[in-house]
From TrEMBL:
Record bears the keyword DNA-binding: yes
Source organism, top-level taxon: Bacteria
UniProt keywords, alphabetically: DNA-binding
PROSITE patterns assigned to the protein according to its UniProt record, in alphabetical order: HTH_TETR_2 (PS50977)
Protein name: Fatty acid degradation regulator YsiA, TetR family
InterPro entries according to UniProt: Homeodomain-like_sf (IPR009057), HTH-type_Tx_Regulator (IPR050624), HTH_TetR (IPR001647), KstR2_TetR_C (IPR041490), Tet_transcr_reg_TetR-rel_C_sf (IPR036271)
Record domain HTH tetR-type: where: 1-37
Molecular function, one GO term: DNA binding
Keyword Hydrolase part of the UniProt annotation: no
Pfam family, one: TetR_C_24
The organism of origin for this protein: Desulfosporosinus metallidurans
Amino acid sequence: MEYIAKEAGIGKGTIYEYFASKERLFEEMLKFSMEEFRLGLKEAMDQGKTITDKLLNCSHYNAEFLIDHMDIVQIAMQINLLSEELRVHFLAGQEAIRGHYDLMVKAAQAQGELRADLDDELATFCIMGTLDEFCKQRVFVDQRPLAEIDHQGIVDVVMKGLK
């Protein structure tokens, strides 16, 4: 807490006025990061005109967020280490993100970009899982720079399928 206070240019006691402990401060940081990710992802979606543009934007945003927040994301991925309150908050955030993707899929169906008989819930989970795992692999495991991540390739696989 002393280090944080020094970096913030405030007294350590001031931090304790807002956060009862280091753990509580950390949990609030995780909550803030989750909300920042949700809002940024929604903005990335909204900037695309077609579903392909939206998916490409989501892939770029996902990778950039992972790189910019690598430490906190790695901790958040270990959800079993988090408090019950934080797990509930994290899962609610995931549900909100799923909702954004679901609306995107339904809108693309309504506009004829995706086939009408597509199971929108299944499509949403496939898109979320594919983009999330692809970006985590490239950022955390392969440790590739952003410029070397083939966002268009993963979007092509999602949109064109495996056949």
